[in-house]
Task: structure prediction
Amino acid sequence: MIRKNIAGLLCALFCSAALFAQVTADPQDEFYSLALNWHNRGIVKKLPPVRPYPYQNVKSILEQVLENGNERDREDASRAYERLTGKKLYVYMDTEGFLKYEKESRGGKSDSDLGKNVYLCPGIEGDRTLFEGNDRASFGYRMGITVAKHPDVDYKPMGATPAHDAIYDPSKFGPLTMYLDVNTAVGYGTENLYFQGGVYRNGFGNWLNEGLALNDAGFHKTNLSLTWMSGKVSYTQQLSMLGSTSAFNGAIESLGAGKILGFHAISYEPAEWFDFSFYEATVIGNRFDICTLLPVPYMISEELTGAGDGVFMGLAFNVKPFSGFTWSNDIMVDDFPVDEFLKANFDSKYRLAAKTGLIWTPEESFIEKVGVSFVAVTPYTYSHWEYDTHSNKAIITPDLNNYQNYTNNGIKIGSQYEPNTSAVEFSLDVRPVNRLKMNLHGSVAVHGNISESLTDEEALEYLKSGYGTYATDGSVYQHSMFSNSDGKLGKHVDTAWNHLNFMNQSHLMTTIKFGTQAEYLIFQKNNGSNVSLKGGFDIEYIHNYGVGNEMFPGIGLEGYGEEITKAGSEKALVEKYRKEWKDQLCNKTNVYFNIGVSIRY
Result:
Protein backbone atom coordinates (compact mmCIF):
# COMPACT_ATOMS: atom_id res chain seq x y z
CA MET A 1 0.00 0.00 0.00
CA ILE A 2 2.81 2.40 0.88
CA ARG A 3 4.59 1.68 -2.42
CA LYS A 4 1.36 2.34 -4.30
CA ASN A 5 0.88 5.72 -2.63
CA ILE A 6 4.49 6.75 -3.25
CA ALA A 7 4.20 5.74 -6.91
CA GLY A 8 0.99 7.74 -7.26
CA LEU A 9 2.64 10.74 -5.66
CA LEU A 10 5.69 10.63 -7.92
CA CYS A 11 3.46 10.32 -10.97
CA ALA A 12 1.82 13.55 -9.79
CA LEU A 13 5.18 15.32 -9.77
CA PHE A 14 3.76 18.43 -11.27
CA CYS A 15 4.32 19.66 -7.80
CA SER A 16 5.91 22.27 -5.52
CA ALA A 17 5.31 25.52 -3.74
CA ALA A 18 7.13 28.20 -5.71
CA LEU A 19 10.81 28.71 -5.04
CA PHE A 20 10.28 32.16 -6.51
CA ALA A 21 7.16 34.28 -6.41
CA GLN A 22 6.35 37.93 -7.02
CA VAL A 23 8.71 40.08 -4.97
CA THR A 24 6.65 43.15 -4.06
CA ALA A 25 3.47 41.36 -2.93
CA ASP A 26 4.86 38.37 -1.06
CA PRO A 27 7.00 38.73 2.11
CA GLN A 28 7.81 35.00 1.88
CA ASP A 29 9.62 35.43 -1.41
CA GLU A 30 13.26 34.28 -1.27
CA PHE A 31 14.36 37.91 -1.71
CA TYR A 32 13.36 38.80 1.88
CA SER A 33 15.47 36.06 3.40
CA LEU A 34 18.42 37.26 1.32
CA ALA A 35 17.74 40.90 2.26
CA LEU A 36 17.83 40.10 5.99
CA ASN A 37 21.12 38.22 5.49
CA TRP A 38 22.63 41.11 3.51
CA HIS A 39 21.52 43.57 6.17
CA ASN A 40 22.98 41.39 8.93
CA ARG A 41 26.34 41.44 7.17
CA GLY A 42 26.23 45.20 6.57
CA ILE A 43 26.02 45.07 2.76
CA VAL A 44 22.59 46.73 2.92
CA LYS A 45 22.58 49.57 5.42
CA LYS A 46 18.84 50.01 5.99
CA LEU A 47 15.70 47.96 5.41
CA PRO A 48 12.10 49.23 5.48
CA PRO A 49 10.37 48.30 8.75
CA VAL A 50 7.47 46.27 7.29
CA ARG A 51 7.51 43.57 4.62
CA PRO A 52 6.82 43.38 1.68
CA TYR A 53 8.71 46.34 0.19
CA PRO A 54 7.64 48.44 -2.81
CA TYR A 55 9.40 48.21 -6.16
CA GLN A 56 11.85 51.11 -5.76
CA ASN A 57 13.09 49.81 -2.38
CA VAL A 58 13.59 46.25 -3.66
CA LYS A 59 15.45 47.63 -6.66
CA SER A 60 17.66 49.85 -4.48
CA ILE A 61 18.56 46.95 -2.16
CA LEU A 62 19.54 44.78 -5.12
CA GLU A 63 21.64 47.56 -6.62
CA GLN A 64 23.50 47.99 -3.32
CA VAL A 65 24.32 44.27 -3.29
CA LEU A 66 25.35 44.25 -6.96
CA GLU A 67 27.81 47.01 -6.11
CA ASN A 68 29.09 45.88 -2.69
CA GLY A 69 28.45 42.14 -2.35
CA ASN A 70 30.76 39.20 -2.92
CA GLU A 71 30.47 36.97 -5.98
CA ARG A 72 27.67 34.80 -4.57
CA ASP A 73 25.78 37.84 -3.28
CA ARG A 74 25.96 39.46 -6.69
CA GLU A 75 24.73 36.31 -8.41
CA ASP A 76 21.76 36.03 -6.03
CA ALA A 77 20.97 39.71 -6.46
CA SER A 78 21.30 39.43 -10.23
CA ARG A 79 18.74 36.60 -10.39
CA ALA A 80 16.33 38.53 -8.16
CA TYR A 81 16.88 41.67 -10.26
CA GLU A 82 16.04 39.72 -13.43
CA ARG A 83 12.78 38.53 -11.85
CA LEU A 84 11.91 42.05 -10.73
CA THR A 85 12.66 43.84 -13.99
CA GLY A 86 12.55 41.04 -16.59
CA LYS A 87 8.97 40.46 -17.71
CA LYS A 88 5.88 42.36 -16.65
CA LEU A 89 3.79 39.20 -16.76
CA TYR A 90 4.79 35.64 -15.94
CA VAL A 91 2.67 32.53 -16.30
CA TYR A 92 3.37 30.08 -13.49
CA MET A 93 2.51 26.52 -12.59
CA ASP A 94 3.30 25.48 -9.03
CA THR A 95 2.41 22.06 -7.80
CA GLU A 96 3.21 20.16 -4.64
CA GLY A 97 2.59 16.60 -3.52
CA PHE A 98 2.43 15.39 0.08
CA LEU A 99 2.54 12.14 1.99
CA LYS A 100 1.68 11.97 5.69
CA TYR A 101 2.24 8.95 7.91
CA GLU A 102 0.76 9.21 11.40
CA LYS A 103 0.88 6.79 14.30
CA GLU A 104 -1.15 7.28 17.48
CA SER A 105 -0.32 5.39 20.70
CA ARG A 106 -2.59 5.13 23.73
CA GLY A 107 -2.71 2.57 26.54
CA GLY A 108 -0.27 0.17 24.89
CA LYS A 109 -2.26 0.16 21.62
CA SER A 110 -1.44 2.04 18.43
CA ASP A 111 -3.15 2.97 15.17
CA SER A 112 -1.51 4.26 12.00
CA ASP A 113 -2.65 5.90 8.79
CA LEU A 114 -1.12 7.07 5.52
CA GLY A 115 -2.56 9.97 3.55
CA LYS A 116 -1.65 11.79 0.35
CA ASN A 117 -2.46 15.16 -1.14
CA VAL A 118 -1.63 17.06 -4.32
CA TYR A 119 -1.73 20.80 -4.96
CA LEU A 120 -1.98 22.34 -8.44
CA CYS A 121 -1.57 26.12 -8.62
CA PRO A 122 -1.63 27.85 -12.04
CA GLY A 123 -1.82 31.61 -12.57
CA ILE A 124 -0.08 34.83 -13.57
CA GLU A 125 2.25 37.08 -11.57
CA GLY A 126 4.73 39.90 -11.89
CA ASP A 127 6.19 43.16 -10.63
CA ARG A 128 5.99 46.26 -12.76
CA THR A 129 6.19 50.03 -12.74
CA LEU A 130 3.03 51.80 -13.79
CA PHE A 131 4.83 54.52 -15.75
CA GLU A 132 7.72 53.86 -18.11
CA GLY A 133 11.05 55.10 -16.73
CA ASN A 134 9.54 56.01 -13.34
CA ASP A 135 9.86 53.64 -10.35
CA ARG A 136 7.66 55.69 -8.03
CA ALA A 137 4.41 53.94 -8.94
CA SER A 138 4.50 50.14 -8.98
CA PHE A 139 2.23 47.12 -8.94
CA GLY A 140 2.96 43.57 -7.77
CA TYR A 141 0.51 40.76 -8.27
CA ARG A 142 -0.03 37.00 -8.11
CA MET A 143 -3.40 35.90 -9.42
CA GLY A 144 -4.29 32.26 -9.76
CA ILE A 145 -6.21 29.31 -8.43
CA THR A 146 -5.35 26.52 -6.03
CA VAL A 147 -6.72 23.06 -6.70
CA ALA A 148 -6.35 20.41 -4.00
CA LYS A 149 -8.03 17.43 -2.41
CA HIS A 150 -7.35 18.48 1.19
CA PRO A 151 -6.18 21.67 2.97
CA ASP A 152 -2.37 21.85 2.94
CA VAL A 153 -2.17 22.43 6.72
CA ASP A 154 -3.44 18.87 7.22
CA TYR A 155 -0.15 17.68 5.70
CA LYS A 156 2.17 19.93 7.67
CA PRO A 157 3.50 19.81 11.26
CA MET A 158 1.42 21.15 14.13
CA GLY A 159 1.16 24.94 14.21
CA ALA A 160 1.82 25.41 10.49
CA THR A 161 -0.17 28.01 8.58
CA PRO A 162 -1.66 27.70 5.07
CA ALA A 163 0.94 28.08 2.31
CA HIS A 164 -1.74 29.49 0.02
CA ASP A 165 -4.13 32.36 0.63
CA ALA A 166 -7.14 30.24 -0.24
CA ILE A 167 -9.06 28.71 2.65
CA TYR A 168 -12.77 29.19 1.99
CA ASP A 169 -15.54 29.67 -0.62
CA PRO A 170 -14.38 26.78 -2.82
CA SER A 171 -15.74 25.23 -6.01
CA LYS A 172 -15.99 21.44 -6.07
CA PHE A 173 -14.82 19.21 -8.91
CA GLY A 174 -15.39 15.62 -7.81
CA PRO A 175 -12.84 14.88 -5.07
CA LEU A 176 -10.97 18.15 -5.76
CA THR A 177 -11.58 21.63 -4.37
CA MET A 178 -10.69 24.85 -6.21
CA TYR A 179 -10.02 28.21 -4.54
CA LEU A 180 -9.08 31.69 -5.71
CA ASP A 181 -5.50 32.49 -4.64
CA VAL A 182 -4.75 36.19 -5.16
CA ASN A 183 -2.33 38.79 -3.73
CA THR A 184 -1.72 42.32 -5.02
CA ALA A 185 0.28 45.34 -3.84
CA VAL A 186 0.42 48.89 -5.17
CA GLY A 187 3.19 51.25 -4.08
CA TYR A 188 3.76 54.95 -4.68
CA GLY A 189 6.51 57.27 -3.51
CA THR A 190 10.26 57.44 -3.08
CA GLU A 191 12.62 55.10 -1.24
CA ASN A 192 12.26 57.19 1.92
CA LEU A 193 8.57 58.11 1.80
CA TYR A 194 5.92 55.88 0.25
CA PHE A 195 2.35 54.66 0.41
CA GLN A 196 1.51 51.01 -0.07
CA GLY A 197 -1.78 49.17 -0.31
CA GLY A 198 -3.35 45.95 -1.47
CA VAL A 199 -4.13 42.41 -0.36
CA TYR A 200 -1.03 40.61 0.88
CA ARG A 201 0.68 38.95 3.84
CA ASN A 202 2.61 41.17 6.19
CA GLY A 203 5.76 40.85 8.29
CA PHE A 204 7.58 42.94 10.89
CA GLY A 205 10.84 42.29 12.72
CA ASN A 206 14.09 40.45 12.30
CA TRP A 207 12.57 36.95 12.29
CA LEU A 208 11.07 36.00 8.92
CA ASN A 209 7.78 34.06 9.31
CA GLU A 210 8.04 34.30 13.10
CA GLY A 211 7.01 37.85 14.03
CA LEU A 212 5.19 38.50 17.29
CA ALA A 213 3.22 41.48 15.94
CA LEU A 214 3.01 40.85 12.17
CA ASN A 215 3.88 37.36 11.00
CA ASP A 216 4.79 36.83 7.34
CA ALA A 217 3.28 33.34 7.56
CA GLY A 218 -0.15 34.65 8.59
CA PHE A 219 -3.17 34.81 6.29
CA HIS A 220 -3.32 37.72 3.86
CA LYS A 221 -5.39 40.81 4.60
CA THR A 222 -6.25 44.16 3.02
CA ASN A 223 -3.58 46.70 3.99
CA LEU A 224 -2.96 50.42 3.59
CA SER A 225 0.29 51.88 4.95
CA LEU A 226 2.54 54.92 4.99
CA THR A 227 6.29 54.54 5.62
CA TRP A 228 8.86 57.27 6.22
CA MET A 229 12.59 56.68 6.56
CA SER A 230 15.10 59.43 7.22
CA GLY A 231 18.66 58.83 8.36
CA LYS A 232 18.58 56.81 11.57
CA VAL A 233 14.81 57.04 12.08
CA SER A 234 11.94 55.26 10.39
CA TYR A 235 8.19 55.22 10.99
CA THR A 236 5.33 53.19 9.56
CA GLN A 237 1.56 53.47 10.02
CA GLN A 238 -0.70 50.68 8.78
CA LEU A 239 -4.43 49.99 8.68
CA SER A 240 -5.63 46.45 7.88
CA MET A 241 -9.08 44.97 7.38
CA LEU A 242 -9.48 41.53 8.95
CA GLY A 243 -12.02 38.74 8.84
CA SER A 244 -13.74 38.04 12.17
CA THR A 245 -14.64 34.46 13.06
CA SER A 246 -16.33 32.50 15.83
CA ALA A 247 -15.34 33.63 19.33
CA PHE A 248 -15.64 29.98 20.37
CA ASN A 249 -13.27 28.24 17.95
CA GLY A 250 -12.42 30.56 15.05
CA ALA A 251 -14.57 28.60 12.60
CA ILE A 252 -14.30 30.11 9.13
CA GLU A 253 -17.99 29.37 8.49
CA SER A 254 -18.85 32.35 10.71
CA LEU A 255 -16.64 34.76 8.73
CA GLY A 256 -17.76 38.36 9.13
CA ALA A 257 -16.63 41.89 8.18
CA GLY A 258 -15.87 44.89 10.36
CA LYS A 259 -12.70 43.79 12.17
CA ILE A 260 -9.78 46.25 11.95
CA LEU A 261 -6.08 46.13 12.84
CA GLY A 262 -4.15 49.33 13.43
CA PHE A 263 -0.36 49.07 13.61
CA HIS A 264 2.47 51.59 13.87
CA ALA A 265 6.16 51.42 14.70
CA ILE A 266 8.99 53.90 15.15
CA SER A 267 12.58 52.70 14.84
CA TYR A 268 15.89 54.33 15.73
CA GLU A 269 19.44 53.24 14.97
CA PRO A 270 21.85 55.27 17.13
CA ALA A 271 24.83 53.17 15.96
CA GLU A 272 25.55 50.53 13.32
CA TRP A 273 25.74 47.86 16.01
CA PHE A 274 22.43 48.71 17.74
CA ASP A 275 18.86 49.53 16.76
CA PHE A 276 15.48 49.40 18.49
CA SER A 277 11.79 49.79 17.63
CA PHE A 278 8.72 50.64 19.65
CA TYR A 279 5.44 49.50 18.16
CA GLU A 280 1.74 49.33 18.96
CA ALA A 281 -1.16 47.33 17.55
CA THR A 282 -4.87 47.60 18.22
CA VAL A 283 -7.73 45.36 17.13
CA ILE A 284 -11.25 46.83 17.00
CA GLY A 285 -14.54 45.81 15.48
CA ASN A 286 -18.01 46.91 14.38
CA ARG A 287 -16.87 50.53 14.07
CA PHE A 288 -14.20 52.69 12.48
CA ASP A 289 -11.87 54.75 14.68
CA ILE A 290 -9.79 57.48 13.05
CA CYS A 291 -7.06 56.83 15.65
CA THR A 292 -6.08 53.70 13.71
CA LEU A 293 -4.92 56.03 10.89
CA LEU A 294 -3.06 58.53 13.06
CA PRO A 295 0.36 58.52 14.77
CA VAL A 296 -1.25 58.71 18.23
CA PRO A 297 -0.67 56.23 21.09
CA TYR A 298 -3.41 53.59 20.91
CA MET A 299 -3.28 53.08 24.65
CA ILE A 300 -4.07 56.76 25.28
CA SER A 301 -6.78 57.02 22.59
CA GLU A 302 -8.49 53.94 24.00
CA GLU A 303 -8.56 55.50 27.48
CA LEU A 304 -9.92 58.79 26.10
CA THR A 305 -12.84 57.12 24.34
CA GLY A 306 -13.49 54.31 26.85
CA ALA A 307 -13.42 51.88 23.94
CA GLY A 308 -11.90 48.91 25.78
CA ASP A 309 -10.28 47.55 22.61
CA GLY A 310 -7.50 45.02 22.33
CA VAL A 311 -4.30 47.09 22.56
CA PHE A 312 -0.80 45.65 22.31
CA MET A 313 2.62 47.31 22.53
CA GLY A 314 6.10 46.01 21.95
CA LEU A 315 9.79 46.72 22.01
CA ALA A 316 12.26 45.09 19.64
CA PHE A 317 16.02 45.61 19.65
CA ASN A 318 19.02 44.14 17.85
CA VAL A 319 22.65 44.08 18.92
CA LYS A 320 25.37 43.44 16.31
CA PRO A 321 28.78 43.05 17.98
CA PHE A 322 30.38 42.24 14.62
CA SER A 323 29.39 41.80 10.98
CA GLY A 324 27.18 38.80 10.34
CA PHE A 325 26.17 38.25 13.98
CA THR A 326 22.97 39.59 15.59
CA TRP A 327 21.36 39.15 18.98
CA SER A 328 17.70 39.82 18.16
CA ASN A 329 14.97 40.46 20.76
CA ASP A 330 11.26 41.21 20.71
CA ILE A 331 8.68 41.49 23.48
CA MET A 332 5.02 42.23 22.82
CA VAL A 333 2.81 43.08 25.81
CA ASP A 334 -0.93 42.47 25.79
CA ASP A 335 -1.57 43.29 29.47
CA PHE A 336 0.93 44.18 32.17
CA PRO A 337 0.00 44.74 35.85
CA VAL A 338 2.41 47.56 36.69
CA ASP A 339 1.29 47.80 40.32
CA GLU A 340 1.89 44.08 40.91
CA PHE A 341 5.25 44.28 39.17
CA LEU A 342 6.36 47.14 41.45
CA LYS A 343 5.40 44.97 44.42
CA ALA A 344 7.57 42.17 42.96
CA ASN A 345 4.48 39.98 42.60
CA PHE A 346 4.99 37.84 39.49
CA ASP A 347 1.90 35.70 39.99
CA SER A 348 -0.50 37.97 38.15
CA LYS A 349 -1.90 38.62 34.65
CA TYR A 350 1.36 39.13 32.77
CA ARG A 351 0.12 38.65 29.21
CA LEU A 352 2.99 38.89 26.80
CA ALA A 353 4.90 37.17 24.03
CA ALA A 354 8.70 37.30 23.95
CA LYS A 355 11.43 36.06 21.64
CA THR A 356 15.20 36.21 21.92
CA GLY A 357 17.80 34.57 19.76
CA LEU A 358 21.08 34.63 17.88
CA ILE A 359 21.46 34.91 14.10
CA TRP A 360 24.76 34.24 12.34
CA THR A 361 25.25 34.82 8.62
CA PRO A 362 28.88 34.01 7.74
CA GLU A 363 30.51 35.27 4.56
CA GLU A 364 32.21 33.06 1.93
CA SER A 365 30.84 29.86 3.47
CA PHE A 366 28.51 27.05 2.43
CA ILE A 367 26.63 27.95 5.64
CA GLU A 368 24.29 30.82 4.82
CA LYS A 369 22.54 31.35 8.15
CA VAL A 370 22.29 29.82 11.60
CA GLY A 371 19.47 30.78 13.94
CA VAL A 372 18.79 29.73 17.54
CA SER A 373 15.92 31.24 19.52
CA PHE A 374 13.68 30.95 22.56
CA VAL A 375 9.99 31.91 22.48
CA ALA A 376 7.44 32.25 25.28
CA VAL A 377 3.75 33.15 25.08
CA THR A 378 2.04 33.48 28.47
CA PRO A 379 -1.58 32.38 29.14
CA TYR A 380 -4.40 34.44 27.57
CA THR A 381 -2.00 36.52 25.42
CA TYR A 382 -3.60 37.64 22.12
CA SER A 383 -7.00 36.53 23.47
CA HIS A 384 -9.82 38.99 24.13
CA TRP A 385 -13.50 38.55 24.98
CA GLU A 386 -16.47 39.84 23.02
CA TYR A 387 -19.94 40.87 24.23
CA ASP A 388 -23.22 40.53 22.37
CA THR A 389 -23.60 43.84 20.50
CA HIS A 390 -27.41 43.53 20.56
CA SER A 391 -27.41 44.01 24.32
CA ASN A 392 -26.11 46.89 26.45
CA LYS A 393 -25.04 44.35 29.06
CA ALA A 394 -21.86 42.25 29.29
CA ILE A 395 -23.54 39.18 27.84
CA ILE A 396 -21.51 36.45 26.15
CA THR A 397 -23.59 34.06 24.06
CA PRO A 398 -23.01 31.20 21.61
CA ASP A 399 -22.40 32.04 17.94
CA LEU A 400 -20.66 35.36 18.68
CA ASN A 401 -17.86 36.56 16.44
CA ASN A 402 -14.70 37.93 18.11
CA TYR A 403 -13.61 41.36 16.89
CA GLN A 404 -10.75 41.91 19.35
CA ASN A 405 -8.60 38.79 19.55
CA TYR A 406 -5.39 38.77 17.52
CA THR A 407 -6.63 36.64 14.62
CA ASN A 408 -7.55 37.13 10.98
CA ASN A 409 -9.90 34.65 9.29
CA GLY A 410 -9.31 32.34 12.25
CA ILE A 411 -5.50 32.40 11.81
CA LYS A 412 -3.21 34.08 14.32
CA ILE A 413 -1.67 37.38 13.17
CA GLY A 414 1.34 37.25 15.49
CA SER A 415 3.16 34.27 17.01
CA GLN A 416 1.80 30.97 15.73
CA TYR A 417 2.22 29.39 19.18
CA GLU A 418 -0.85 29.11 21.38
CA PRO A 419 -0.91 30.98 24.71
CA ASN A 420 0.85 29.17 27.60
CA THR A 421 3.66 27.85 25.41
CA SER A 422 7.45 27.99 25.47
CA ALA A 423 9.72 26.77 22.67
CA VAL A 424 13.34 26.46 21.60
CA GLU A 425 13.95 26.69 17.85
CA PHE A 426 16.91 25.94 15.59
CA SER A 427 17.42 26.65 11.89
CA LEU A 428 20.41 26.10 9.57
CA ASP A 429 20.55 27.28 5.93
CA VAL A 430 23.29 25.74 3.82
CA ARG A 431 24.22 25.83 0.13
CA PRO A 432 26.35 22.79 -0.86
CA VAL A 433 26.40 24.00 -4.49
CA ASN A 434 25.42 27.34 -5.92
CA ARG A 435 21.88 26.50 -7.10
CA LEU A 436 20.99 24.08 -4.30
CA LYS A 437 19.71 25.49 -1.03
CA MET A 438 18.93 23.37 2.00
CA ASN A 439 17.36 24.17 5.34
CA LEU A 440 17.64 22.02 8.46
CA HIS A 441 15.26 22.97 11.25
CA GLY A 442 14.09 21.70 14.58
CA SER A 443 12.16 22.78 17.66
CA VAL A 444 10.95 21.63 21.05
CA ALA A 445 7.72 23.26 22.21
CA VAL A 446 5.86 22.74 25.49
CA HIS A 447 2.22 23.80 25.84
CA GLY A 448 -0.32 23.60 28.65
CA ASN A 449 -4.09 23.95 28.61
CA ILE A 450 -4.85 26.75 31.07
CA SER A 451 -8.20 25.07 31.85
CA GLU A 452 -6.31 22.55 33.96
CA SER A 453 -5.58 25.38 36.43
CA LEU A 454 -9.23 26.41 36.87
CA THR A 455 -10.92 26.00 40.26
CA ASP A 456 -13.97 23.75 40.60
CA GLU A 457 -16.22 26.82 40.85
CA GLU A 458 -14.82 28.25 37.60
CA ALA A 459 -15.12 24.89 35.84
CA LEU A 460 -18.81 24.73 36.83
CA GLU A 461 -19.41 28.17 35.27
CA TYR A 462 -18.13 26.81 31.97
CA LEU A 463 -20.22 23.63 32.25
CA LYS A 464 -23.41 25.58 33.01
CA SER A 465 -23.07 27.63 29.82
CA GLY A 466 -24.54 26.61 26.49
CA TYR A 467 -22.23 24.77 24.08
CA GLY A 468 -20.26 27.17 21.91
CA THR A 469 -20.21 30.00 24.48
CA TYR A 470 -16.73 29.58 25.96
CA ALA A 471 -13.61 27.84 24.71
CA THR A 472 -11.78 25.68 27.28
CA ASP A 473 -9.13 24.32 24.91
CA GLY A 474 -6.30 26.60 26.08
CA SER A 475 -6.09 28.27 22.67
CA VAL A 476 -6.18 31.93 21.65
CA TYR A 477 -9.99 31.64 21.81
CA GLN A 478 -10.07 30.97 25.56
CA HIS A 479 -10.41 34.33 27.31
CA SER A 480 -10.62 35.58 30.86
CA MET A 481 -14.19 36.84 31.31
CA PHE A 482 -17.57 35.34 32.14
CA SER A 483 -20.90 36.70 31.00
CA ASN A 484 -22.62 39.23 33.30
CA SER A 485 -26.21 40.24 32.64
CA ASP A 486 -26.19 42.70 35.55
CA GLY A 487 -23.50 45.09 34.29
CA LYS A 488 -21.51 46.42 31.38
CA LEU A 489 -18.36 44.53 32.36
CA GLY A 490 -18.12 40.77 32.58
CA LYS A 491 -17.10 38.77 35.64
CA HIS A 492 -13.39 38.00 35.87
CA VAL A 493 -12.09 34.46 35.80
CA ASP A 494 -10.05 34.71 38.99
CA THR A 495 -7.31 32.25 37.97
CA ALA A 496 -6.84 34.29 34.79
CA TRP A 497 -7.08 37.75 36.31
CA ASN A 498 -5.03 37.30 39.47
CA HIS A 499 -2.62 34.46 38.65
CA LEU A 500 -0.09 33.69 35.90
CA ASN A 501 -0.14 29.85 35.88
CA PHE A 502 2.49 29.76 33.14
CA MET A 503 3.41 26.17 32.28
CA ASN A 504 2.54 24.83 35.75
CA GLN A 505 -0.18 22.39 34.67
CA SER A 506 0.08 18.64 35.43
CA HIS A 507 -0.26 17.52 31.81
CA LEU A 508 1.89 19.39 29.31
CA MET A 509 2.05 18.67 25.61
CA THR A 510 5.62 18.40 24.30
CA THR A 511 6.14 18.65 20.54
CA ILE A 512 9.54 17.74 19.07
CA LYS A 513 10.09 18.53 15.40
CA PHE A 514 12.96 17.99 13.01
CA GLY A 515 13.06 18.32 9.24
CA THR A 516 14.81 19.46 6.11
CA GLN A 517 13.73 21.20 2.92
CA ALA A 518 15.78 21.48 -0.26
CA GLU A 519 15.29 23.71 -3.31
CA TYR A 520 17.17 23.40 -6.58
CA LEU A 521 17.05 26.02 -9.32
CA ILE A 522 17.34 24.05 -12.57
CA PHE A 523 17.74 27.17 -14.69
CA GLN A 524 16.77 30.81 -14.96
CA LYS A 525 16.78 32.90 -18.12
CA ASN A 526 17.82 36.53 -18.27
CA ASN A 527 14.15 37.56 -18.39
CA GLY A 528 13.45 35.85 -15.04
CA SER A 529 11.78 32.71 -16.38
CA ASN A 530 12.82 29.70 -14.30
CA VAL A 531 12.20 26.09 -13.34
CA SER A 532 12.91 24.75 -9.86
CA LEU A 533 12.50 21.60 -7.80
CA LYS A 534 11.62 21.29 -4.13
CA GLY A 535 11.42 18.41 -1.68
CA GLY A 536 11.83 17.53 1.95
CA PHE A 537 10.49 15.83 5.04
CA ASP A 538 9.52 16.59 8.63
CA ILE A 539 9.32 14.28 11.63
CA GLU A 540 7.14 15.25 14.58
CA TYR A 541 6.67 13.54 17.93
CA ILE A 542 3.91 14.82 20.23
CA HIS A 543 3.71 13.68 23.85
CA ASN A 544 0.26 14.22 25.41
CA TYR A 545 -1.42 14.99 22.12
CA GLY A 546 -4.94 16.21 22.90
CA VAL A 547 -4.00 18.79 25.51
CA GLY A 548 -5.59 21.35 23.16
CA ASN A 549 -9.02 19.70 23.26
CA GLU A 550 -11.98 21.13 25.18
CA MET A 551 -11.89 20.31 28.90
CA PHE A 552 -15.23 21.75 30.10
CA PRO A 553 -17.59 22.02 27.10
CA GLY A 554 -20.81 23.85 27.91
CA ILE A 555 -23.79 21.56 28.50
CA GLY A 556 -26.42 24.17 29.41
CA LEU A 557 -28.43 24.52 32.62
CA GLU A 558 -30.88 21.74 31.75
CA GLY A 559 -28.14 19.27 30.85
CA TYR A 560 -26.12 20.47 33.82
CA GLY A 561 -28.86 19.39 36.26
CA GLU A 562 -29.05 15.93 34.73
CA GLU A 563 -25.26 15.57 34.81
CA ILE A 564 -25.15 16.55 38.51
CA THR A 565 -27.72 13.89 39.32
CA LYS A 566 -25.69 11.24 37.50
CA ALA A 567 -22.35 12.33 38.98
CA GLY A 568 -23.69 12.71 42.53
CA SER A 569 -22.18 16.16 43.25
CA GLU A 570 -20.77 19.22 41.56
CA LYS A 571 -17.24 18.27 42.55
CA ALA A 572 -17.71 14.78 41.09
CA LEU A 573 -19.01 16.30 37.86
CA VAL A 574 -15.90 18.47 37.49
CA GLU A 575 -13.67 15.49 38.20
CA LYS A 576 -15.57 13.44 35.60
CA TYR A 577 -14.77 15.96 32.86
CA ARG A 578 -11.17 16.32 34.01
CA LYS A 579 -10.76 12.53 33.84
CA GLU A 580 -12.35 12.28 30.38
CA TRP A 581 -9.98 14.96 29.12
CA LYS A 582 -6.99 13.20 30.69
CA ASP A 583 -8.01 9.78 29.32
CA GLN A 584 -8.09 11.01 25.70
CA LEU A 585 -4.45 12.16 25.80
CA CYS A 586 -2.09 10.07 23.69
CA ASN A 587 1.32 10.13 22.04
CA LYS A 588 1.59 10.76 18.32
CA THR A 589 4.31 10.42 15.68
CA ASN A 590 3.87 12.10 12.29
CA VAL A 591 6.16 11.91 9.26
CA TYR A 592 5.60 14.29 6.34
CA PHE A 593 7.08 14.14 2.83
CA ASN A 594 6.74 16.72 0.06
CA ILE A 595 8.14 16.90 -3.46
CA GLY A 596 7.42 18.98 -6.52
CA VAL A 597 8.18 21.34 -9.41
CA SER A 598 7.66 25.05 -10.05
CA ILE A 599 7.60 26.50 -13.57
CA ARG A 600 7.61 30.24 -14.26
CA TYR A 601 7.64 31.59 -17.82
In short: DSSP finds ten helices and 26 strands in the chain. Confidence is low (pLDDT under 50) at residues 1-20. The first helix runs from residue 2 to 11. The first strand starts at residue 50 and ends at 51.
